[in-house]
Amino acid sequence: QVQLAESGGGLVQAGGSLRLSCAASGSIFSINAMGWYRQAPGKQRELVADITSGGSLNYADSVKGRFTISRDNAKNTVYLQMNSLKPEDTAVYYCAAVVYDGKYEYDYWGQGTQVTVSS
Question: Average model confidence (pLDDT) for the chain?
């Protein structure tokens, strides 16, 4: 079993910054990809950004140039630096990881952290 522990959400004014962190722990052989998704009220969950074990990056068009994803493989931790935040970035942000246990891959999700951007 694998646990994802998120931190760093909160309330910030438009134009401000927040940094989210997500640490994976448990039965991990390797983590193939880690990422962040978000879900705003009344909307579907969407990909914000993800990063592979090799460092390949992928961003939603809406956050390109404002958000930066990074990971520390030694700590099994992924970060999301969010700058120039907008009210439309308000959502619950979920960490996700694709974990390989030596035989199979599994998808894991964090419990979510609220990010609220006031105008």
Answer: 95
**Which residues in the chain show pLDDT less than 50?**
none
DSSP state of 112: -
57 Cβ neighbours under 8 A, 6+ residues apart: 49, 50, 51, 69
pLDDT tens readout for residues 79-93: 999 999 999 999 999
Question: How far is Cα 18 from Cα 80, in angstroms, rounded to an integer?
Answer: 8
Please say whether the beta carbons of 108 and 5 come within 8 A: no
For residue 43, with 0-12 CB atoms within 10 Å meaning exposed, 13-18 middle and 19 or more buried, which class applies? exposed
Cα 1 to chain centroid distance, Å, stands at 19
CA torsion 69-97-7-41 (nearest 10°) is 90
Ranges assigned E (strand) in the chain: 2-7, 10-13, 18-26, 30-39, 46-52, 57-59, 67-72, 77-82, 91-100, 105-109, 113-118
